[in-house]
Specification:
Largest sheet: 10 strands, mixed
Structural class: alpha/beta
Shape: globular
Distance between the termini: 36 Å
Helix content: 25-40%
Strand content: 25-35%
Order of helices and strands: EHEEHEHHEEHEEEE
Number of strands: 10
Radius of gyration: 18 Å
């Protein structure tokens, strides 16, 4: 493999991951990306969002998600776009296990080996998509996971709803991981960008610790 050459790089490639409860506004936020954007919809949640009308969209077939994504990778032309939105990987995880369970006697049971297979499959998919020379915005649902600190104390932390190894790989390869929340009083949406004991987040693009959703893609000076 040749040595990395900075001069051959064509601009900056950003990698964002935003997670939150269903309906928090993640798909709407993705529609605010500047430039020509392609939506890889993994949960079919774009229909009533005006920002996605008449845009380039690949809506996954829930009956055959693995085969369908193989076709997407084969057909997608990243050189024709500025951004790719992957919405949402938590639902993809559910569809993957449903498809695998169809081979069982009841059509409902997953085998132990499926869990390791999913992690390897998703990491392979993400590494392929992240190799494209375009910006990529990923969404996921949220869940609380148990975390143990160096002293042995356990606590619950909000994080993307994915199996541990796949989640860690995805978060580790993103420049920004943010948790999207909505004020119950005003309805205003915001994104937490700084991690804490109860929320996983990071921001290595600028010094913001949180932002209004409308300003998410504006880097601070």
């Amino acid at each position: 493999m040749p040595a990395f050459n900075w001069k051959e790089q064509q601009g900056s490639k950003y990698r964002w991951l935003v997670y939150g409860v269903p309906g928090a506004g993640k798909t709407t936020l993705a529609g605010m990306l500047k430039g020509k954007t392609y939506l890889l919809s993994l949960d079919d949640s774009f229909h009533r969002i005006k920002a996605w009308q008449n845009k380039s969209i690949w809506a996954i077939d829930p009956e055959k998600p693995i085969e369908d994504l193989t076709e997407f990778v084969r057909e997608f032309k990243p050189e024709e776009y500025d951004n790719l939105v992957i919405d949402n990987v938590s639902n993809l995880q559910k569809l993957w296990f449903i498809e695998k369970a169809r081979d069982s006697k009841t059509g409902l049971d997953n085998k132990i080996q499926h869990y390791g297979e999913f992690t390897n499959w998703l990491i392979r998919l993400i590494s392929k998509l992240f190799s494209y020379n375009i910006n990529i915005f990923v969404t996921a649902w949220e869940k609380q996971v148990k975390v143990t600190d160096p002293s042995g104390q356990e606590f619950e932390q909000y994080a993307p709803d994915l199996r541990d190894s796949a989640r860690d790989y995805l978060m580790g390869n993103c420049d920004v991981v943010g948790r999207m929340i909505q004020s119950p009083k005003t309805g205003e949406r915001g994104v937490i960008l700084q991690g804490s004991i109860d929320t996983y987040a990071k921001n290595r693009l600028d010094n913001r610790t949180a932002t209004k959703a409308d300003d998410f893609f504006e880097e601070s000076k």
